[in-house]
Amino acid sequence: MRLFLFLVGGTGSRVMRPLVMQLAAGVRPLDENGKPLSLELIPIIVDPHKANEDLKRTDNLLRWYRQIREGLYGNQVDVEKGFFSVKISTMSDILPNGSNLSDTFLFNLGAVESRKFQDFIAYNTLDSSNQALCSMLFSDYQLETKMDIGFVGSPNIGSVALNQFKDSEEFKQFSNAFQKNDRVFVVSSIFGGTGAAGYPIIVKNIRNAANNIMINNRGDLRDARIGALTVLPYFNIQQDPNSPISRADFISKTKSALFYYHDNLTGLRQNGIDTKQSKINACYYLGDEIPSNPYFNDPGGNGQRNDAHVVEYAGALSILDFLQIPDNQLTTVNGNAQNPIYKEYGLANDKMTLTLKDFGLSTRLLVNKQMIKFHLAYMYLTHQLRSDIGRGYTQDKPELTNGFMTTSWYTTLSSNFYVAYRQWLQEMKGNQRSFVPFNLDTDKLSECIMDVAAKSGFFKSAIDYKTLLAVLNKTSQEAVKTSQYGSNVAHKLFSLLDEALDKLVDEKFNAVV
């Protein structure tokens, strides 16, 4: 299965960040029989604000993920399990050779990014009556807004500017690359500018594909299976009288957008009957009434960098959930979703400081074990691997030497991805509400999982690096007989860690679910 994942505005980028971490940990959506789905993910970031720090952090994560995965599995799509097993590709990756698209996760909005809004609508060429009409619809600040900082919380600007989306080369290439069994998912917020405007425009152009003669497979795209996450207000910002962004406007903007979405996008079901026809097969809604730590009020000029939040972590789960819905529950006829699905998300325990045990059972079953395995692997590689080189499994073919730790692949993992991973955890811990899955103040494996103590007893040893090394050695000895790793040291190391930690987590931490 391929999923085209449109990440609209700052919230889109912020939700992608925890999804990358979950996929790196080996979290996989499952089919109806509980088997991991074969999946290729094509993220497409739609945001004119290229200087947005949240966008840049997500773009870096995606590039590092792709480099790490290529070093492990090459160009293989069907990797059954393991860390970084899901393939993440750019649009350029999936197009035939000769495509003129850049190898990037960013959607090109060049016609928008470098211009003031008044220039984009050719305000100065209008006659006086039309200028007067524009002045009624848009404030002087909005007309003067240079759109390379986004749409400053103004969906009325975004809805006009993003209408060029359908004429872009990227949309044409996406449309012609789309296949019948592919899916689409859109992530956006509803209380800002870019996300609130971009979501309906993307869906409208997909559903109206039948009218676009530039698209070869118009019927397949028109009837695509589409899911969407609508993120309601969940963070707070500092008050600034000189900024057009105000927390006080979030709720009114949300209500206005929800009314519009109901009439034109998502529809409504009452007593099992469609009262409005939905264009979306599966709608997810998520927010938090508890405001976060107040973020710096930045309309865009200073980069916009928000600390990671648990709402974004839960938001990433909606994408995994959508992938697990069977095809026959996501049918579309002539661009209209049949029996659309509507979902919200709730915690098992409504607390101000959350751990892995405070999510619902389905979440714990899907992600907890893999997230714990990934963190234990991070701990081992960060604190212990160098000491273990030259003994045990590291001497088995292919041999793991000190030189491996100076390779560009390992540098990308340890100095880039793992640094970003720890920063992500620190931000969620420091935010409100706080999410603290792991103890970042210890280097001991037995103490690093918050709210879950490793089992120990008279006949059981607590988990430590010595225990892990013993399991790695045993697992390696069994694997040597099949020569399954060839000469790929990175693949050997991560496969052994995945298998060894699979056993240890089951034995020591089975209370997580």
List keywords for this structure.
513 residues; 13 strands; 42% helix
- How helix-rich are the residues, as a percent range? 40-55%
Task: Return the structural class.
Answer: alpha/beta
Q: What would you report as the Rg, rounded to the nearest angstrom?
A: 24 Å
Figure out the total of helices.
18
**Shape assignment:** globular
What is the average of the pLDDT values? 84
Strand content of the residues, in percent? 5-15%
Instruction: Describe the strand arrangement of the main beta sheet, using strand numbers.
Output: 3-2-1-4-5-8-11
Ends: how far apart?
Answer: 28 Å
Residue ranges: pLDDT <50 for 5 or more in a row?
149-153
Largest sheet: 7 strands, parallel
Q: Let me know the number of strands.
A: 13
- Oligomeric category: single chain
If you had to describe this structure to a student in words, what would you say it looks like?
The protein contains 18 helices and 13 strands. It has helices at 9-24, 53-73, 91-94, 110-113, 117-120, 128-137, 140-144, 155-161, 169-177, 194-207, 218-222, 250-266, 310-324, 361-383, 385-388, 408-430, 465-480, 489-508; strands at 2-8, 40-46, 87-88, 183-189, 225-231, 268-270, 273-276, 282-286, 332-333, 336-337, 341-344, 353-354, 434-435. It has a 7-stranded parallel β-sheet. Helix 1 (9-24) links the parallel strand 1 and strand 2 (40-46). The radius of gyration is 24 Å and the shape is globular. Residues 149-153 have low confidence and may be disordered.
